[in-house]
Amino acid sequence: MNISTHMPPYDTVDAYPTRHPDKEQIIERADPVLWSEWHEGAPISRDEATRYAKNGYLVRHDMFADDELDLMVETARGLRDTDPAERPADFVTEPGSDDVRTVFRLDEHSPVFARLAADTRLAGVAEFLLNDRVYLHQSRLNYKPGFKGKEFYWHSDFETWHAEDGLPRMRSVSASVLLTDNSRLNGPLLLIPGSQNEFIACKGETPDNNHESSLKAQEVGVPQPETISKFARDLGLDAASGPTGTVVFFDCNTLHGSNGNITPDPRSNAFFVFNSITNRPVSPFAAAKPRPAWLSNRDRIMPIDTIDGPITR
Amino acid sequence: MNISTHMPPYDTVDAYPTRHPDKEQIIERADPVLWSEWHEGAPISRDEATRYAKNGYLVRHDMFADDELDLMVETARGLRDTDPAERPADFVTEPGSDDVRTVFRLDEHSPVFARLAADTRLAGVAEFLLNDRVYLHQSRLNYKPGFKGKEFYWHSDFETWHAEDGLPRMRSVSASVLLTDNSRLNGPLLLIPGSQNEFIACKGETPDNNHESSLKAQEVGVPQPETISKFARDLGLDAASGPTGTVVFFDCNTLHGSNGNITPDPRSNAFFVFNSITNRPVSPFAAAKPRPAWLSNRDRIMPIDTIDGPITR
Question: Hey, how many other C-beta atoms are within 10 angstroms of the C-beta on A215?
């Protein structure tokens, strides 16, 4: 069944209006964080489900066997080492160098990573969290070099996905699989636990082709510093660190960012955004046209058939 | 006795030639790290002395009473709040704003911080570490804002102080007194333990007025990334964090740096460089003229009379 030709089941009423010309506004979340009731057959423990609902993220260690991790790390290295002449346009390089920084549409460029995305340990968990079948809204492999890794300022992914991609509701979850060890010192993912419960409708209208600059340093669609201070003061701050193979699931509206990294230790991760098939994109809510397909899948919406068992070559 | 009129006791032979036009070179340290033998009357424990000698730094907690800390924090706030019209030239503001970022020659602008510098808990420890009377080569109060605190790349202070200020030998120690809580997440001082034992003679000649750009982002006088990687791999990496009042002593040649800080938590510290009076500056070893006096004291070299007892208003 090609459900991408169906009409979206969510209507196009804007539940989260944002990008006001002159004011920031806080709106209460109108959607669940954890969409399922926990049950015995769930792919995460009851305690994990409770923590995800409360904090808006969940860090899971020891999810993969050593040979699965070796395969992922080796596959990531192979993708980065692709001959520059043969690289598809989804391979983005560092400014002024031939070094690959990001591979977008990762699942289309690598059977190993497509298999990883479909694994019950990723897509299976996403289905449970969202209580629906899921597809990939975005996928990418990130290489952050040591010494000059740059920071990412605080933001909610959903704010952009709603404003610029047209995702109607908060029914998506990101999964980041760490392919390097990540300590508290080499720029780990920072999160504000509980921030997913309020939507910060941001100030500032969306410029045309905003993604061309926002991927480098986001300026539109970010909360005011005072708002982030208030959230951090009230809710605290946490870092998602762990050894290679750690998986971080985080709700689409959880405020997050990361510091730069002057340590010699690079960071690399495979990143998948799972969206509920019920929540597929409509017209952007606050942008003239949708972002390109490599950032925001709207043409190849295929529900994932989850796969159990070890990931092998 | 005004010893600043004496001839420097160290001759002007260059023990650490650096800023080669075309190569980086590693030279073994020719000076002790810990200049004293530990004894019962020493101001630090035997274990602390051993760790300082081995690692090139020492973190000390709980050195000050609550009312001493309150006084320092309040004094720092008062300096920052000085009317812009009345601020001396040593008060440096953020680009594009009136917010004070650094107060140089801190000891000359604040009796409280002059008293702090002279305290046996700072100058007394410095005298012991360097086995000599000491004076202030540099002092400053740093305010690093939350959200946009910038990183400082890896460097040895001594490399600059030798090349650009003319300090002959490795006989100086910095003391940083934290005036805010510093966690592993808001950009603490990162150090490579043991790196003080080798001098990295850097590649690249010194441009005129190098300090005008090097204070923003140092480009000359920094080790190559491969060298830092090797040091970090062989020796490890540590972060000096702790609550307000924590004191970090670090040898002039210990490699250090810090990540940027996107967290809402600002960082502030009072920073003092104690130099042995035997080690006072001669002509710069690798620059056309010395840096200005607010960065590099060469005109007011007054040995400190250390003071015991509580710091009060």
Answer: 13
